[in-house]
Amino acid sequence: MTRKPKPILDIPPSPNLTFERKLWEDNQQWIAGLDEAGRGAWAGPVVAAVVIFPQVTNLEQYLWGVRDSKQMNVHQREYWAEIIRELAQAWGVGSAEHFEIDLLGILPATRLAMQRALGQLSATPDHLLIDALLLPDLNLTQTALIKGDQRSLSIAAASILAKTTRDALMRQEDDSYPVYGFSRHKGYGTRFHRQALTENGPCAIHRMSFRPLRELSASSS
Predict the structure, then answer these.
(1) For residue 110, what are the CA distances in angstroms to 66, 97, 124, 135?
(2) What is the C-alpha separation between 44 and 107, in angstroms, rounded?
């Protein structure tokens, strides 16, 4: 049995503007980076963000601490989220709720959240740089970048805005459903979350289409 070799990705030490600059040189001005947060969680929305940076000299130096949001702690994300919003030419955030995820499936719901984020922009982008996805329903030129949040500064910035927005939403949900510890794990499948589900069953914002929730429902019926 033979397997196709995996592509060797050029992962820089930190996200940069290599992809954006190539598009700028091609006279495409508004380059939008998109990413999501919460795709694998068991509860709450999936949140997407879009960021468009201006063609500013030394922008990478101004944003030296921006990384894939998963590589940052909460304080770093909150700090850089403010700077990203200040320096961005445009940005937007959109979400798809738990019931939309159950109805559509997580991948279509993720695309829906991205389209809603794009709908918050004041102008139509010339090109989309997306972390490992394409939006086939949109008549826009697009590039799906594997590990895009580690390669493109625009996508990394979008990942931070998506993550900080979703984390804030899940902290609010913790006030409504305190037994689940949403402020601790943000709806992901931790041991604490699983135990809380075993003891209390699911709440109104759980994604019942996800296998752990289906298995729990089946075992309790």
Answers:
(1) 23, 10, 20, 10
(2) 15
Are the C-beta atoms of residues 44 and 186 closer than 8 Å to each other? yes
C-alpha 50/C-alpha 36 separation (Å) is: 9
For 131-182, how does the pLDDT look when each residue is reduced to its tens digit (9 = 90+)?
999 999 999 999 999 999 999 999 999 999 999 999 999 999 999 999 999 9
**Which residues, in sequence order, are bridge partners of residue 143?**
129
Question: Please, what is the end-to-end C-alpha distance for the chain in angstroms?
Answer: 43
Does this model's pTM top 0.85? My answer is: yes
Domain borders along the chain are: 18-220
Torsion of CA 191, 193, 199, 200, to 10 degrees: -170
- The CATH H-level superfamily of 18-220 is Ribonuclease H-like superfamily/Ribonuclease H (3.30.420.10)
The SS3 assignment for 140 reads coil
Distances (CA, A) of 113 to 44, 45, 110, 209: 13, 9, 5, 18
Give the sign of the dihedral formed by CA 212, CA 69, CA 102, CA 198.
positive
